[in-house]
Amino acid sequence: MATIERVLVIGAGVIGLSTAVTLAESGVPVRVRTDQRPAETTSAVAGAMWGPALLRPAERVRRWVADSYPRLVALAADESTGVHLAAGRMAARVDLGDQVPPEALLLPDLRPCTPGELPEGFRSGYRATAPLIDMPRYLEHLTGRFLAAGGELLLSPVSSLAEAVEEASRIVDCTGVGARELVGDPGVRPVRGQHVIVRNPGLDEYFVEVGGAEEFTAWFPHGDRVVLGGVAVEHDWSRVPDRATGAAILRRCAQAEPRLAGAEVLGQQVGLRPGREAVRLEVERIGGATVVHNYGHSGAGVALSWGCAAEAAELLG
Fold this sequence. Notes:
Elements: E1 7-10, H1 14-24, E2 30-34, H2 58-75, E3 83-92, E4 111-112, E5 124-133, H3 135-148, E6 152-155, H4 161-167, E7 170-173, H5 179-182, E8 189-199, E9 206-209, E10 215-222, E11 225-231, E12 233-234, H6 243-256, E13 265-275, E14 280-286, E15 289-295, H7 301-316
Parallel strand pairs: 1-2, 1-7, 2-6, 3-9, 7-15
Antiparallel strand pairs: 3-5, 4-5, 8-11, 8-12, 8-13, 9-10, 10-11, 14-15
Helix pairs in contact: 1-3, 1-7, 2-7
C-alpha cells in the first residue's frame, strides 16, 4: 500500500486548525508549523459568532459560510467544544430593510426586531439563535482533535515558502495577516480589533452592531465572562490595548445594556484581523509543490472556517 505524503499546514489559528483537522481526520498525515501557539493567535481573541460574511468573492463566501453553519451547530451539542447556541440581536443604526443575506435564512428563528427590542440609537435589527464560540476553548478542542487524529503541531516559524517547499510538496498557507510577509502579498492588511473582557453580570444573549463602522457595539457571553467590542481599525499593527479605546467600548456597551455598567473588567485583548479585498483560497504551483493559499478572511474566519477547510483539502488533491 502506498504511503500518503505528509501535508504541511502553516498557521494555527482557526483557519489553520480547521484545515489541519479536516485533512488529518480523513487519514492524511499532517504537520502544522506555527510561530504562535493557538492560544496566542488572533483567533483566540475573537468574539465570536457565526453569521453572514459580506466579503468577496461573494458566491464562494456564501457557500463557505453555509457549509460551516451545520458543523458549528453540531458542535454545540457538546459543551466541551466551546460552541453553544444563543439567542440575540443583530442591529443597525440605519434601516436594514427587508433584504437579508441569503445565508442568514439558515437561522430557523430569524425575525425582525420590534422597536422595543432595540437599544436607543438603533433603528432596525433581527433576532435569531446563532452559534457563539468561546474561542480559547474552541481552539483547545480543535487542537485536541488534530492531535488525536495523529497530527503533529510544532512551534516552529516558517520563514518563506521556499523553506516550506523544501519540507513538503503539499502545503496549505493559513497565515492570516502574516501572509503579507510570507508570500509577499501587499493586499493583506491588518484590521486591528480590541475587546474588553468583563465578568458576566447575568447576560445570556449576544448583541452585535452591523453596518461596517470602525467603532461598533457588541457583546458575546461565554459562561462567566462576556467579550465586549469593538473596533476595526485598518493598517494598525499595534497589539497593545489602547486605554481610550477600551473605555469607549465599555461606554457604548453600557449605553446599550445597562447591566454592563460597572461590570468587573477582567482584561483587554487585541488581535489583527487579516483584511484583504477578497479571501484568497486558490492553488499556486511552486516547482513540483502544490501550495493552497487559505487566508484573508478578515473578521469572519470562524464563520468561513469549515467551508474553506473542505475546499482547501479538495484543492490540495
